[in-house]
Amino acid sequence: MTHGMLAAAQEITAQIVAAVEPNVEFTEIKRARAKSPTDSLAAYDLYLRALPAYFGQTEVDYKSVGVLLGKALEVDPEYAEVLGILTDSVVTRTVQGWHESWSRGVDEACRLADRALAAGPDNSTCVVSAAYTYGVLSYRFDEAFELANRAVMLHPNSVLVRHRAAAVYTVCGEADKAIAQCEAACRMNPLDSKRAATATFTILSAALYFARRFEECIRAGRRALAFTPKTNIARKYVAISLAQLGRTGEAQAEIAELLKHQPDASLALFQLQGFRHKWMHELHLEGLRKAGLREK
Asked: The whole model's pTM is what?
């Protein structure tokens, strides 16, 4: 192949990549703008304004989501998509340690999840956010598992549905099923480096930990941290996998970094996180103790 032909081929390749590169944030906002599931233009405007922050990765972003979507619900209390996204954001704030209180975060998320299911029983965002809430925060594992399955059936091409269902399968002790959902999410969105990839690799790290695939857990968690350094959940699973492998110094360094971003992190706090099986609780706490996390 001549230099000119090679250059032409590279140009064509670049054009193809630019044309097909998935961008979840753009796609989701475009989809939202294509239909307005509310009669209130004011509520719809608030919803659209909240989406960029929802695709953000910081505590400030999620507080902004709460404010904007809370105002949208004041205008239209039955706005299903808003209820689903707000539920999901409150769960994320709580498990990342960004909520003012774990117990208040659980209560708020559960109330919103109930409202979301009532408003959108066939809305995949509502169904999967309720599954995520019930499974990750309120220990309603059977209900969460069924809702996660239903969400995947409703919208199998949604990356959000895939990785939130994976989170539910993880806490239910179905690591292989969770890993398969994360792998599907990666195939659907292979080049994304923002919110979806962070969530997918964070949840994958948790699933791999409970599958006792510690080396792979570290790689997945570090992928998430490369996208979003303040992803506390991924850092925790990296730390405890390092500890399980006997790499105590590295584990302690990760715990020290975790405490910078989540100052209240402790064994007492993480004991509030629910898992379906006793062995999962034990494996979780074992790793945290080996990594040197304080008791309280």
From this structure: 0.85
